[in-house]
Amino acid sequence: MKFNKIKLFAVAILASMTAINCSSDDDQINMPTGPDFSGTYIQEDQMARPAINTVFVNDGMKDTFNSTVPSQMGEMFQGPFQTKLEALSPAYDPANPSDANALGFTAAQFTGVLATDVLTVSLDDPTTFFDGTNVLTGRALADDVIDVELILIFGGEDGLSNPENPGLVSDNVSSNDKEFLNSFPYLATPW
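User: That's the sequence. What structure does it adopt?
Assistant: Structure tokens below.
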């Protein structure tokens, strides 16, 4: 009991000394002046289309891919993407370069689009990843992006209506677990 009183007394002395020794500049408030954009900034990551980045960018080229500006990506990565696409999908036969997907893109054309990791947006067409008519005109929350990518990679010329690889054209998740909202922030609450 006596030892606890000594501890309590020591804490009280230290607290009073701290209070006495505080500087008197409490009336000066240092307000932030805003963000500081001086210095050198570098691009560290790209994920406009995360599933594509995950599947087609090999581990050995992740850093290079993520730090390459989009205008240079097609030239640098189309070839490796095409090699990966032809290895993954029997819908693209390297012996038949005219094999195409539901958009009519050959392996070379399709991987040229995939290798440039940007989301395109049309100011005139409906915002959609792919709705059967409009292609890559944006991305709506309800777009089933993974299914579209699977159809274009594995579906062949007929895509979903008569896919060349029927078991590979859907992740079998047909909708979000909650309805999207009609106003900002559009996403449902997580719980």
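The chain is about 35% helix and 0% strand.
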